[in-house]
Design goal:
With about 250 residues, the protein is mainly alpha-helical. Helix content is about 50%, strand content about 10%. The strands form four sheets. Strands 1-2 form a two-stranded antiparallel ribbon. Strand 4 and strand 5 form a beta hairpin. Helix 1 crosses helix 2 and helix 2 crosses helix 3. The model has no long low-confidence stretch (mean pLDDT about 95).
Length: about 250
């Protein structure tokens, strides 16, 4: 209680090497500052970059530099695409970035690793629509998906395929398909003369079974076309297999 025992930290005026300078700068400003490191080491930014080597990377298209841990984490697939584009525009400038990003890239998943579900966000509405048109033999069937709003299925409720083979008389295939896409339970109610509703277990079970068959057929159909398979696998990896922890 007589005198101060915790005193303000004294700023570091100089360091012996760029690695110590990097540690000091990250502690004081929270980012890679080449000018500040050069001032601490008494050299220039070119010497700092050469000494730090693989410890820092420049972000393509900017003057920003990041530590290895920061640059080689996050969405590395997007970063790799940016580095390749930068290399195309300035050949020989970014091979170090490309090689480092490739070394940490998650292994691509293949079609056998994926389970396509009706309503999956990585499968576009156009593929859902094509599936319904081919399966129900209805060229006018339409499937739309608006992010934040949901799925909508139209013109897929008539014909023997829609009401018997892939649907029921109480719930057609288009309606079942929309319920699956929206992840809604498939239930059928009977309306009594008193205007009250009663759950119909038999009719619901029949519609649920048709939904299971539709989902099973959809999972097979998705991989039947090689072009579609390549496109969807690429999209899945882009969306869900691109992140690396720091």
């Amino acid at each position: 209680l007589r005198h101060r025992v915790v005193v303000p930290g004294q700023p570091v005026r100089g360091v012996d090497n760029a690695f110590d300078g990097l540690s000091v700068v990250l502690d004081t400003v929270g980012r890679v500052d080449l000018e500040a490191i050069a001032n601490l080491t008494g050299t220039d930014t070119t010497a700092v970059v050469n000494e730090l080597g693989e410890s820092i990377f420049q972000v393509p298209g900017t003057e920003e530099w990041q530590t290895r841990a920061e640059y080689l984490s996050g969405n590395v697939r997007t970063k790799l695409n940016e580095a390749r584009l930068a290399e195309f525009e300035a050949p020989g400038r970014w091979p170090r970035n490309i090689a480092a990003l490739q070394s940490v890239m998650p292994i691509d998943l293949q079609s056998g690793d994926l389970s396509p579900r009706i309503g999956a966000v990585w499968i576009p509405a156009s593929d859902h629509q094509q599936f319904l048109r081919e399966t129900l033999n209805l060229g006018s069937a339409r499937v739309d998906h608006v992010p934040g709003v949901g799925w909508a299925v139209e013109n897929a409720s008539w014909g023997v395929l829609a009401t018997e083979e892939w649907g029921t008389s109480r719930m057609d295939a288009g309606t079942i398909f929309e319920h699956l896409a929206k992840q809604r339970p498939i239930v059928i109610y009977d309306t009594n003369p008193e205007k009250t509703r009663t759950y119909n277990a038999v009719a619901s079970a029949g519609a649920i079974e048709k939904g299971r068959l539709l989902q099973e057929r959809f999972a097979q159909w998705v991989w039947e076309d090689p072009e579609r398979t390549d496109r969807l696998v690429t999209e899945y990896n882009r969306r869900f297999n691109s992140l690396v922890e720091r």
